[in-house]
Amino acid sequence: MHVLKRNGQKEALDISKIRIAIGFACEGIDVDPIELELDAQIQFKDSISTKEIQQLLIRTAAEKVSPQTPQWQYVAARLLLYDLYKEVGHLRGYKVKDKLNGKYKPYNPDSFYQLVKTYAEKGIYGSYLLEEYTEEEFNTLSRYIDPDRDLLFNYTGIKVLVDRYLVRDEDGNVVELPQEMYMLIAMTLALPEKREERLKWAKTFYDLLSKHEISLATPTLMNARRTHTQLSSCFVLTVDDDLYDIFDNVQKAGQISKFAGGLGIYLGKIRATGAPIRKFKGASSGVLPVVKILNDVMIYVDQLGMRKGSASITLDIWHKDVLDFLEVKTNVGDERKKAHDIHPAISIPDLFMKRLKSRDKWTLFDPYYCKNVKDGKNLEDLYGEEFEKVYEKLERELPAYAKKEVPAFELWKRLLTVVFETGEPYIFFRDTANKLNPNKHCGMVYSSNLCHEIVQNMSTTQHIEDTLLEDGTIVHKKKSGDVVVCNLGSINLGKVYTKEDMERVVPVLVRMLDNVINMNYYAIKEAEYTNKRYRAIGIGVSNYHYCLVKNDIQWESEEHLEFANALFERIAYYAIKGSVELAKERGAYPLFEGSDWSKGIFFGRTAEENKRISKNGFDWTSLAEEVKRYGMRNAYLLAIMPTGSTSLIVGATPSVDPIFAKFYKEENMSGILPQVPPEIDKYFWHYKSAYNIDQEWVIRAAAERQKWIDQAQSLNLFIDPEQIDGPKLSRLYELAWELGLKTVYYTRSKSMTDIEECESCST
C-alpha cells in the first residue's frame, strides 16, 4: 500500500511516520498518543494522501476537546502546525527535517529574507521592508525568532490565524509561518523609530506579540507588512444636511469599507421627513433613504467578496424620524423602509432619561428648524445644561409642524421592544461622553464608532468650491472636518495584570499604536488629517474573565468591583506615563494646549482627587505636573473594544465579557471550532457563564472600569427572555446611565424569536 506525498510522489505506507507526527503533537502534554491513534480510525487505502491522514488526526484531536480534557486543543494545534510547517517548507523549497540529526526544525532562518524579497516583487509584501532593512538585519531578526512560541497557540487560535491572517500567494497558498508574521508586523511598526534603534524596537514589539502579552487590531495584524498598510479598525463620519456632503460621505464610506475599515456614521444633522427643500414645503424624504443607501454600499463594497462592509448609524432620540429609524432592522412594517445590514444606534441626552423617570412628555424636532439656535450652533452641537435650556426653549417656541410630542415612556418602550427583537440599537449617552471628553476645548462628540468604544471629536467637512482649469481638470476644494480613526491594541490580562507587568508592557503598546499612525495608509485624506492632529489610540483588554478567575474573584462580588477599579487604574496610569515619555521624545499632539490633560484633569477629576481615590498608591499629582510640562503624545488613550478574532488567536476570553459558556462550538469563517475558557479543567467551578450572571453586576463592574477610561467600552448585556421582562431590561439601561457609562453595545439574547410586545412596561 502506498501514500501520496505533498510533492506528488508515492512511497510505501510507513505507520512509524504517522506516530512521529502524533508524538510531536503530544509531547509534554498530559494525553495518551495511543488514544489519538485508535480514535482516528484511519481507513487506509492505496494512494491515500499524507494530507488526508493529517487532517483526520487534526479533526479527531479537536473533537476530543471538552471542559474535562481541554489539553486536546493543544494537540490539535500542534498537528495543524506540523501540517503548516510541511506545506510552507515544500512551497518555499526547504526541508523541515534536519539531515544531520533527523530532528524537525520548522523554521528556516536562512529563507526569511528571500521570502520577503520574492513576494515583495509580486506585490504581496510591501517593498518598504526591503528598502528600510538590510539583508543582514533581516538575518539578525530571523535568528531572533523563537519557534517554540508557536506552542502557545490552541487549535482555534492557529486555525483562525492560518485561515485569515497569514499571508498567501497568488494561488491561495500560505507562504509565511506564525512567528514570521509577528516579526514582520514588528518590523513594520518599528519603521518610524530611529535607524539605530530600529532592531531593538522590532525585537521588543515581536516579544510582546509572540508571547501573546498583547494583541493588535485585525487590520493591523492583516495589513502590516503588506503593500497597503491600512492598519486602523474603524472610522467615524459626520454627515451634514447638504446633498453634496451626503454623497461625499457615501463615497467615503465606500472607500473606507474597500480597505476593511468599519464605520460609525452620524446622521443627526439631516432634516426630517417633510422638511422644506429650497423653501418647497414637504419636499424632504428624511433620513431613511440615506440609511438605505449606506446599507447598500455596505453590501456592494464587500472587500473582494470576503465579507460585507459594516456600519453603525446613529440618530438622536429627539430627531423627528427616530420612530421609523428604530424599525429599520425589525421584521415587521414596510420593507421599503428596512436596512437589515447596518447597525442602528441612538444618541440619548440626560434630559430624556430625566423625562423618562418622571414619565413626562418628549418632543421630537426636525433638525432643519434647529439650526443657529445659540451662538451659531445647532441644537445637536450643544450638550449638558446648555442643550437642555435650548431644547426646552424650542419646545415652547417652534411651530407645530416642526415638532412632534410623544410620551417619553412610550418611545422608550418601543426602543426596548426593538432591543428584545434584534439586540439593537446601540446606546450612546451623549452628555456623559461630552462632559468627560478631555478634548472638549476643540470639538464635539455626536456619536460613537461601529463597536461603541470610541468617543472622540467629530465635525463635518466644509465644501468650498469647484474650479474648472483650462486643461479640463476639475479641482474640488474643501476644508477637512474631524473624521475619527480608531488605532487599537489590547492587553492580555491572563498574562499581564500586575503593576510590574503593566509598567513594562503598556508604554510599549502606546508606542506601537503611535507608530501605527505614522505607518497607516489612509483611504480618505480627512482621516489622515484627523489622525495626525489628535494621534488618538485605543488600548483595550482581553482575557478579563480569566484574570478574575485565576485571582479567585467571583464576578458577582464587591471584590470584583475593587479589583476592576485597581486594575484599570494601573492601565490608565502607565498609558498616560507612556504617552508623556513619547511626548518628550517626539512632541505633544498639536491640539494639546487647552485640553483637560493640559490642566491636570484626568477622567474628569483633578490630580488630587485621583491621588486620593487611588487603590495602587500612585502619585497622580507628580504625573499631572509632568503632563503639564511635556504634554501628551496622544489625545485619547483608552477604549475597551471587542476582541473577538484576536481573543481566539491568543486563546483568551473576549474583551471584558464573561464567558459565553464553559464549552461550546463556535461557527465562523474557519468552520466549527471547539471553545473552552483558559484552564477550564482547573477553574471549572470558578467560571460562571454570561447568561447566569446578574447583569447589574456587569454594569457595576463596567462603571468601576469607566472611572479610569477616557473613551468608552463595548459593553454587551446578556439576557434570557424567559428570565427578564421590560421593566428589568429598562432598569439595566437606566443603571448604565446613572453610573456614568457612555455607551451600551449589543444586548445579546438566548433567543431573538417570538418576542412579544413589551406590554408589562405600561404599569
From TrEMBL:
It catalyses: a 2'-deoxyribonucleoside 5'-diphosphate + [thioredoxin]-disulfide + H2O = a ribonucleoside 5'-diphosphate + [thioredoxin]-dithiol. It comes from the Bacteria. Residues 1-90 form the ATP-cone domain. SUPFAM superfamilies: PFL-like glycyl radical enzymes, R1 subunit of ribonucleotide reductase, N-terminal domain. GO terms for molecular function: ATP binding; ribonucleoside-diphosphate reductase activity, thioredoxin disulfide as acceptor. PROSITE patterns: ATP_CONE (PS51161), RIBORED_LARGE (PS00089). It holds the Pfam family ATP-cone. Its EC number is 1.17.4.1. Gene3D superfamilies: 3.20.70.20. One of its GO terms (cellular component) is ribonucleoside-diphosphate reductase complex. Keywords: Allosteric enzyme, ATP-binding, Deoxyribonucleotide synthesis, Nucleotide-binding, Oxidoreductase. GO terms for biological process: deoxyribonucleotide biosynthetic process. The keyword Flavoprotein does not apply. Belongs to the ribonucleoside diphosphate reductase large chain family. Provides the precursors necessary for DNA synthesis. Catalyzes the biosynthesis of deoxyribonucleotides from the corresponding ribonucleotides. This is Ribonucleoside-diphosphate reductase. It comes from Hydrogenobacter sp.
